[in-house]
Amino acid sequence: MIKTRILFLVIILLAFVFRLYRLNGPVADWHSWRQADTAAVARNFLKFGFDPLRPRYDDLSNIQSGKDNLLGYRMVEFPVYQTLGVGLFKLTKMIPGMTIEIALRLISILASLGTAFFLFSLARKRGGDLVAFCTLIVFCFLPYGIFYSRAILPEMLAVFFAIGALWVFDKSWFNAAILSGLALLTKPTAGFLLLPLVYFWLRNPVFGGRYFLKLFLFSLFAVLPFLFWRYWIGQYPEGIPANFWLLNDGNIRFSGAYFYWLLGERLAKLISGYWLIVFLVIGLISKSTGSQKTNLFLLAGTVLYALVFARGNVQHDYYQILWLPILAIFLGQGMAVLLSKNNNFQRLSSLTMVLFCFLLGTLLSWREIRSYYWINNPAIVEAGLATDKLIPKDAKVIAPYGGDTAFLYQTNRQGWPVGFEIEKKITLGADYYVNTNVPDLETQYVLKKWTPIVTNDRFVIVKLR
């Protein structure tokens, strides 16, 4: 028991260290637009006051909702993630170098390590120590999982709440209801990971008034907060991005491109580095999975999620964060089958094959993932720092970047992530124009008509009033 705990703690400590890679990097890496929108809500809680019922981000344009959003409302998931990030930042802001971005990344890291504990416990309960440790190692050290375990996104926290609900159900259905409610508030798509709860309620039913009362209260605490939030945000249509396209835009579901991107590019190449697929196949077909109905329901929920949000899963690779729990379980199970003393393989050969496949798979996956950490356009960071230093704190900024809010976020101001119709944006409140595309015709037009503050070959800052 002591050795098990020590080994578990060593793996968790290593996982934590791996997730600290580029912890203090700017929000200008992979999916920086989505990370910037998430971080902006937390940063604006610090600027404008904490108001979780009216979260605000930096984009004032009509790009996402089709309506001008001059207060910058961000009405997507309830800001559970940002609330925790702000709380952690306020507790640790005396630490040198601490920023709201680091605090948010630490929330993701802690959520991933908590999820690792839940998966380890669930796997150990149903499959023993070997399966549990293999599951833990896979979840902790997949390069894809490492990157998205420190990204500024709410998905990992939602996964933590969802898997926590499965873990705690046998101990307390009430706590499972609370965690389920938090999962749905943090990211509604996490509801697909809660499908095993249906099985939990039906596996040994004792029908009667007490049973139905508990089921009703469970449903109330799990679903009512989410329904209230959806009703509430209906009052702010300008802050609700268009989202129906995430389901099946372009009729992508079941097309060749759908299977190519999800099973080929994402599952086989990006997440598994090709070679880890060996473990997944073995884990799926091994006899030990037959009695693990919880895992099969979790697999069904994950598959259903990929089917319902077909376009979202094809368009964005961060959508596969919700795949990680079931992938870790079956990959770990496949590894455990090969390492088990009861298999029919030669023991040294099995160990060699597991090490070879795991190391090669993670290295090939890392080859794809390493570029996710890169800052591909450092000019936006440089221009953002200069803008933040030179212009008033309450100024509104036009920061054209093709609609991507990553550049706008660097300026630490609200405004517009697109140019054109500059005069109209001035009437809506724009005070400054910043662009890293200096030769652009629009930039040259703005430089001639208004007052340049900074002009160089990297960026321009122009005063519009």
What does this structure look like?
The protein has helices at residues 2-18, 32-48, 80-92, 100-127, 129-141, 143-148, 155-168, 173-186, 196-203, 209-233, 245-248, 256-271, 277-285, 293-308, 310-315, 324-339, 347-369, 378-390, 406-411, 422-427, 441-449, and strands at residues 397-398, 415-416, 432-435, 451-455, 460-463. With 465 residues, the chain is mainly alpha-helical. Strands 2-1-3-5-4 form a 5-stranded mixed beta sheet, with helices on both faces. The longest helix has 28 residues, at 100-127.
For the biggest β-sheet, the strand order reads: 2-1-3-5-4
Category by helix and strand content: mainly alpha
Strand tally is 5
Largest sheet: 5 strands, mixed
**Secondary-structure element string:** HHHHHHHHHHHHHHHHHHEHEHEHEE
Number of helices: 21
Distance between the termini: 70 Å
- Rg, rounded, reads 24 Å
Q: What layout of secondary structure does this protein have?
A:
Elements: H1 2-18, H2 32-48, H3 80-92, H4 100-127, H5 129-141, H6 143-148, H7 155-168, H8 173-186, H9 196-203, H10 209-233, H11 245-248, H12 256-271, H13 277-285, H14 293-308, H15 310-315, H16 324-339, H17 347-369, H18 378-390, E1 397-398, H19 406-411, E2 415-416, H20 422-427, E3 432-435, H21 441-449, E4 451-455, E5 460-463
Parallel strand pairs: 1-2, 1-3
Antiparallel strand pairs: 3-5, 4-5
Helix pairs in contact: 1-5, 2-3, 3-4, 4-5, 4-7, 4-16, 5-16, 7-8, 8-10, 13-16
What is shown here, in short?
This protein is mainly α and 465 residues long. The chain has helices at 2-18, 32-48, 80-92, 100-127, 129-141, 143-148, 155-168, 173-186, 196-203, 209-233, 245-248, 256-271, 277-285, 293-308, 310-315, 324-339, 347-369, 378-390, 406-411, 422-427, 441-449; strands at residues 397-398, 415-416, 432-435, 451-455, 460-463. It contains 21 helices and 5 strands.
